[in-house]
Design a protein that fits this description.
The chain has 141 residues and is an all-beta fold. It has no helices and eleven strands. The strands form four sheets. The chain has a four-stranded antiparallel sheet with strand order 8-9-10-11, with no helix packed on it. Strands 3-4-5 form a three-stranded antiparallel sheet, with no helix packed on it. A two-stranded antiparallel sheet has the order 1-2.
Length: 141
Amino acid sequence: GILTLLNGSGRVIWSSDSTRHGQNPVAQLLDSGILVVRDAAEDKTQNYMWQSFDNPGDTTLPGTKVGINLKTSFHRSISSWKSTNDPSRGEFTWTFDTGGFLQTFIMNSSIEPYRAGPWNVRVFPNAPSRDTSWNGYNYTY
């Protein structure tokens, strides 16, 4: 159930982090843009072993969730590329913090260059736009 990409020399350059395993795992790119690893006999979304929307990189698509699942503590954040030619996780991360008031941050390693302010049920007060559907993104809590 782990999807692994190898370079021309057979060296692992990336792998999914699935903890679940299937009898006959397959990778599938869905019409929604989600890349999933699932058992060939199973197509229910709740039974996917791994899905790209749970592990966003530097880009979001409609349906991508970013934030923290307060029930499971599963954390999704977006990160920059390491360099122009290296798409692995870079130093900048857009992340959420639930310690105290819910807030969103852009972090550069451990330095906080930007904070959107605490969520006030409608908006993040320091966000570039105070509209809840800024540039097509809907903030929900």
